[in-house]
Amino acid sequence: MRTRTICQAAALAAALLFGGASIATAAPAEVYSDVTAADIADPGAVITDSAADLAAARTASQAIAWFSSRNGSTAYQGYCEKAVRLAWDRVTHHASAIDHWRSSDGARHTTGTPPRGAFVFWNISAYGHVGIADGSGGVWATSVNGAIGHARQGYFANYLGWKPGNSN
């Protein structure tokens, strides 16, 4: 749908640029508004994400870098969910890791190696535990030898699974 809208915008821009000729096309049913000259004048109008959303979005590498730059810190002991939220610069907040796991916020996977940046969950307490996957069977998490650290996925007991990492 986005490609079709962009193509329509390009066609309208060309018509306006080359003499203002009108283009008569039937809009597809899923398009909710017509592309106007104002849309062409504002290139951001075709992009659905705001500039703030695009600036805030992080990559898996940036989320892992957040953890690795705090290696050895005890500042987030007992706050694993907060740590992964800050690492990904997430808008969505969960009260605990187990709430995040049980939520509809991302598809749950219980098999396979979690991909780089994925949220990895364990059922180690009433609140659960969560870390960030390195993509090679390891995780960055709080509570690794009492601080933020890197460990093998099996370091924590009662593995639940993983969800894709994101800045939602």
Instruction: State the helix count.
Output: 6
For the largest beta sheet, what order do the strands appear in spatially?
A: 4-3-2-1-5
Q: What is the average per-residue confidence, as pLDDT, rounded to a whole number?
A: 78
Q: Give a quick account of the main beta sheet: strands, pairing sense, barrel closure.
A: 5 strands, antiparallel
Oligomer: single chain
Number of strands: 5
What is the strand content? 15-25%
Order of helices and strands: HHHHHHEEEEE
Q: Label the overall shape.
A: globular
Distance between the termini: 22 Å
Helix/strand layout:
Layout: H1 2-17, H2 37-41, H3 51-56, H4 60-68, H5 80-88, H6 97-102, E1 119-122, E2 129-133, E3 138-144, E4 147-152, E5 159-163
Antiparallel strand pairs: 1-2, 1-5, 2-3, 3-4
Helix pairs in contact: 4-5
Main attributes?
168 residues; alpha+beta; 5-stranded antiparallel sheet; 6 helices; disordered N terminus
